[in-house]
């Protein structure tokens, strides 16, 4: 109810961006939805053909809600930043973290752990907010993203700045008095990027 009132568009924007970047038919792709919450992102991914969805979240109550959607093949409890993801290395074709990369939530230092569980050539879809109280975190996150790119761990596919991300909860947080805050979708592809097979 809260996210509906806030016109929260991140799950829709993230799923659309990932589906756009994803070269293969998504039905057979194994995807990990990190900080999956109640399954808002899964609903959007499912609409775009992703069928093999696994989710992790730090809240047992959220996981119960996610389970009730029937969209996940597997759900596990994990607090990212405090413990490793419950998955082997190079296991997923895609990993999403939507709405949890922010001040007081998942630390930016957890990003390499997302890369660890992604297959070479796999995609990572991350989002964060650009409102005033999250700018310090956003700068830390972007420094981490850039550093991993410079190390050759992944390559940038897409960075989409979105003005009307969600309604602002206060005037101070609002972007230039619009009543909304802005946000960003990042899509990266893990290196080495495997060339497409000739069919």
Distance between the termini: 46 Å
The percent range for strand residues is 25-35%
Question: What's the multimeric state?
Answer: single chain
Helix count equals 6
The percent range for helix content is: 25-40%
H/E series, N to C?
A: HHEHEHEEHEHEE
Say which CATH homologous superfamily is assigned.
Answer: Vaccinia Virus protein VP39
The CATH architecture assignment turns out to be: 3-Layer(aba) Sandwich
Number of domain units: 1
Gyration radius from CA atoms, angstroms: 16 Å
Count of individual beta strands:
7
Biggest sheet layout: 7 strands, mixed
How would the global form be characterised? globular
Return the CATH class.
Alpha Beta
Spatial sequence of strands, sheet with the most strands? 3-2-1-4-5-7-6
Structural class: alpha/beta
Spans of at least 5 consecutive residues with low confidence: none
Mean pLDDT: 92
In CATH, the topology is named Rossmann fold
